Amino acid sequence: MRRCLKSSPRAASARLSVLLRGNRMMTAWPSGAGEALAISGLAALLGLVGLWLATRADRWELEHPVPVAGFTAGILLGAAFLHLLPEALQRLVLIERAVVWGGAAALGGYLMMTLATVLVSRVRAAEVAHQEAGALAMLPIIGIGLHALTDGIAYAVGAEAKAAALPLLGLGLTLHKIPEALVAHGLVREGGGSPRQAILVTLLAVVLATPVGTLAALPFVAHIGPAGLAMLMAATAGALVQIAASHLLPHVEHEPGRGGGPAFLVGLAVALAGAFLLGHA
After folding, report:
1. Around Cβ 13, how many Cβ atoms within 10 Å?
2. Tens-of-pLDDT digits for all 281 residues of the chain?
3. 182 three-class SS
4. What is the pTM of this model?
5. Is there a contact between 154 and 236 (Cβ–Cβ < 8 Å)?
6. How many Å is the maximal CA-CA distance in the chain?
7. Cα–Cα distance, 178 to 57 (Å, whole number)
8. Extents of the domains making up the chain
């Protein structure tokens, strides 16, 4: 009995110490967390704008916004090659074969995004061949939701790294929220969903997924270590390259004369100016 009484203050103190350390870990958000959350909020707001536009015309057919696609592609490629990837290599400088590791991480991000694209494309092909399987229309929505979730994680990574690319990431990744919401809403309606179901699914997959991704990632990115953070930055760069090269630039290439080329050059110029004016730290 005496042993229990003597040891209980120590045990209580130990439990309190563990609890305090745990609280500090959970509250140790990056200094750029506010900026990342603000950008996520802007992305959600633009998703709401796209949803509102979709509800204005139930059979809304969005023409390819070629200049927006070109500008966004320039921004994302610039953020990847001029900001995220160089900064990742700088953070890996003390690791043997740093360039190889950084390149491998970037390639991994590119391939993961490519795999997701292939899976979604196969689902869409099956959807065309089997129109009666309306449930298949929800699978591309899942892909859109995962993409939006990845956007939010990218904001958190940029916040932890204090990366100069964070404003450019916000500019580039939020621009596609309006057409993304229109596409999601249209997929649900074409799959036989009601207007209410289309609104609910678009809210979850487009509007809320990005802030949720940021909120979920912010408490953890501070504890993955410099090397892990650098690898994650390089992988994010690879994913952005895939989005720009495979999803955005084809619109510019296949629809010449609609302002996509000049807009792409403007986007690159903005990214290049940011690289010189903002630096990498």
Report:
1. 10
2. 444 444 455 554 444 344 334 444 444 566 667 777 777 787 788 778 877 877 775 554 444 457 767 877 887 788 788 877 887 888 787 777 878 888 899 999 899 888 877 776 665 555 444 444 444 455 556 656 666 776 777 677 666 665 555 666 666 566 667 766 776 777 677 667 777 888 888 888 878 888 888 887 777 766 777 777 788 878 888 888 888 888 778 878 877 777 788 888 988 887 787 667 655 44
3. helix
4. 0.57
5. yes
6. 88
7. 14
8. 53-278
